[in-house]
Design brief:
Length: 519
Amino acid sequence: MANAVRLAYQQGQTDYSMEPFVRVDQAGKPVGMIQDGDSVVFCCRRGEREVELTEAFTESEFPHFDRSNLTGVYFVILTLYHEKFKDLPVAFAPVNLADTLGELVSRENRSQMRCSESEKFAHVTFFLNGGNNRAFPGEMDVRIPSPKGQSYETIPELSLPRVTEEVIQGIQKGYDLIITNFANGDVIGHTSSREAKIQCAAAVDVHLGRVVEAAMAENYVIAITADHGNLEEMVTAEGAAHVAHTANPVPFLLIDPQTRFRAQVIDGSLSDIAPTILGVLDIPVPESMTGTTLAPGHEFGPGRKMLLIILDGWGIGREDSTNPIYLAETPVWDRLVALYPPSRLQASGEAVGLKAGKTGNSEAGHMNIGAGRVVLQDDVRLDQAMKDGSFYTNEVILKSIRRARENGTSLHLIGLLTEKSSHGSMDYPLAILQMAKDQGLERVFVHIIFDGRSTEPGSAPDLLEKMEIRMREIGIGEIVSGIGRGIALDRDGNYGRIEKTYRSLVQGIGHPYPDVSIK
């Protein structure tokens, strides 16, 4: 497969959008496809990107495309991707978060609105609510579709104009709490286009100005922050395009139009935002929220309303030519920063429940913002399980292995080809391969999802070869298919991508390898 991927690069394909590969035998027949009665472990861990493919394999009523008759597949998800999957076998079930910001606001019979485009909709709902996908009483969720059919770098404004209009309407309707996510900084920050990143920052600035102006006119207290860094770094230390999240702190601005005394904000972390908002809304902070207010001593007065604007991926970077935010025309941002000096919030590593030194991400960011406390992320929980050995004794995973062995069927592992992503790691399928070996299972097939976000461009062949070496050392398993993350882990309701993934996994439809061009 490594050779097949190198050839695909020459034809202009990228890891993120890689069309499906399927392994074939000498007769040209696909090898290792998922069949009825097989066990499958989806070795990804985050949530919103894993939902659609899981639906295709597990939902009895699935209207998006015709599927094979696979009623007997035992489908295990590594973590709970969505509340709708609570009855599936979940290897590492979540700890339920109570007393989140949204729950507390609802409990006080206060109204709230969440608004973003679809790229980040799960973040202002599912993740902000502590893994709860149901809106709380009094919560209105507004999802604006992200653009489809175009490369995002050609439309750096994305659907922000419509998001802005909806937020302004929410302000005029008088919701007590409005939370919105401007997705642009993260989505465009993941591209390699210098021009798109600069245009993105300028577009965010324009619409930020519109929303802030509308909120101030209605006497809203306004907080502006980010969930993690990304856009603020243009190039890597080696001079290549920087396309990943950063470990930089993020800004926190607080605007109170009712008083001539500016709110003095202090440094902290994302978990301090919820207690600050509760203070504005005059709602008691529960003991479970260990964060503290970022505006100590400021009197907001009774009956206040709150707007939280999350500029996704808008970190604090250097003020030089490596920072698209600095290079862009951002008069609104410049004026706000001058009038309301921001503090710095930690948004990565242990400050948001990730491993020390690890870059932040949208899921960790929004969970910490909503929880008002540091929430251990799945990567930490799973890494702890790997270190203390409890991963290898996980009963849900062991059941999938024993089931395949006892029924004479196969085990399939769907995993992300990366060493460091918030969606997963090569370590998980490799660990399960060792478990399968120890249990005496013989037929195990690995289905690769190429990353293209947390990995360097063009790194997939080397990672494949590295993984295959590890698999040979374990002595079990075959890599039999591969497809890009942008197709397999769609989160925008594009079920055409999911159909392409499903058919490659189940029917062996894709580019066959090896073929004459790579022998």
